[in-house]
Amino acid sequence: MAAPSGRSGWRAWAALVPAALLCLAAWAAAEPGTAPGAAPSTAEFDVRPGGEVHSFSRSLGDYGCTFTYSAQGGTNEQWQMNMGVSEDDGLFSCSVWRPQGKSYLFFTQFKAEVKGAKIEHAMAYSQAAVGAQSDIPLKQEEFEVSEAAVSHREGKFRFELSKLTIVAKTPRDEL
């Protein structure tokens, strides 16, 4: 991906670099065998259309992740939830995504919540990277991030979702 051009584009690019580093650290921490107390977890689930609100939740040690959504059109799609905790127990990561890349469902709402940690960075994508394709992020106005959740923004979200990533800071006991 080429860097954005112009002065405002450079600021946007510079803001993405620290976030990308956080994501890389979380993914590296999620490699098997790196977190002695909480092995990384991957769970598959079906995202179902039909307009009803559905949720999928998993826990990893003291931390949890819940994906809640409503979708229309098409048939069930196979999705995954990946969770990991850094070796020093400082970061918790949760990703919800469609491994095939692009979802063909029409999402009317979505929300991913974490428990036991505070979100440091979250990103939503209309297309997940697969093969030679890259992740395509949603526009910032399409979703919102709080300390505990990333969710669609009513009236701004354009109904496309294929991936959500969250990196959260875990509480630490200070001596």
TrEMBL record:
Keyword DNA-binding: no
Membrane-traversing stretches: none
One GO term describing the cellular component: extracellular space
InterPro entries: MYDGF (IPR018887)
GO BP terms, alphabetized: positive regulation of angiogenesis; positive regulation of endothelial cell proliferation
Keywords on record: Signal
Signal sequence, start to end: 1-30
Keyword field contains Transmembrane: no
PANTHER family: MYELOID-DERIVED GROWTH FACTOR, MYELOID-DERIVED GROWTH FACTOR MYDGF
Protein name per its UniProtKB record: MYDGF factor
